[in-house]
Specification:
Layout: E1 5-9, E2 12-16, H1 24-31, E3 51-53, E4 56-58, E5 72-74, H2 87-94, H3 104-117, H4 123-129, H5 140-154
Parallel strand pairs: 1-5
Antiparallel strand pairs: 1-2, 3-4, 3-5
Helix pairs in contact: 2-5
């Protein structure tokens, strides 16, 4: 049984009438049209579905939407726009840090949460922070470089 409620996503309030047990990922993709977060495993194992919930990177594939009233959700679409990319998005483009790209939205979200906590990380710290994201394709070294580059840009250092 569903009961109408409001969900705040990317700074915008949405009135929803969906079952409270519906996974957040399904609401984002199928009800709000936000396709950036991906379904990978459905078991909190791959990180493709990660979103920020009150600034913390969390899996959306198994998170019941009814538990999120009053919380702020940010998807990869909320990081920046085509006209004003977030420094992470810009660095990923510059470093060509994607192969197929399926995992990148989750990695960008995890990296954002991590850099908010640690603005001057080492390469090893970045690698550890992204460990919950399953992708280890051929571009993984470029992903690590992109996060370090974004960290420097966020600190207003010349890269």
């Amino acid at each position: 049984m569903s009961k109408p409620f409001t969900l705040t996503v990317n700074g915008r309030e949405y009135d929803l009438d969906v079952p409270p047990t519906m996974p957040l990922l399904d609401v984002l993709r199928n009800h709000l049209g936000l396709k950036g977060s991906r379904y990978g495993c459905g078991l909190e194992q791959c990180g493709a579905c990660m979103v920020l919930i009150d600034g913390s990177a969390e899996y959306s594939c198994s998170r019941e939407v009814g538990t999120l009233g009053g919380r702020s959700i940010t998807t990869v679409e909320g990081l920046g726009s085509a006209e004003a990319l977030h420094p992470l998005q810009q660095a990923f483009l510059e470093e060509q840090a994607g192969q197929c790209g399926y995992c990148l939205s989750g990695i960008l979200i995890a990296a954002k949460a991590f850099l908010d906590r640690n603005p001057d990380p080492t390469r090893a710290e970045v690698a550890a922070a992204l460990d919950a994201n399953l992708c280890r394709c051929g571009s993984h070294p470029r992903i690590l470089r992109a996060v370090l580059k974004a960290a420097a840009a966020l600190r207003h250092e010349v890269v």
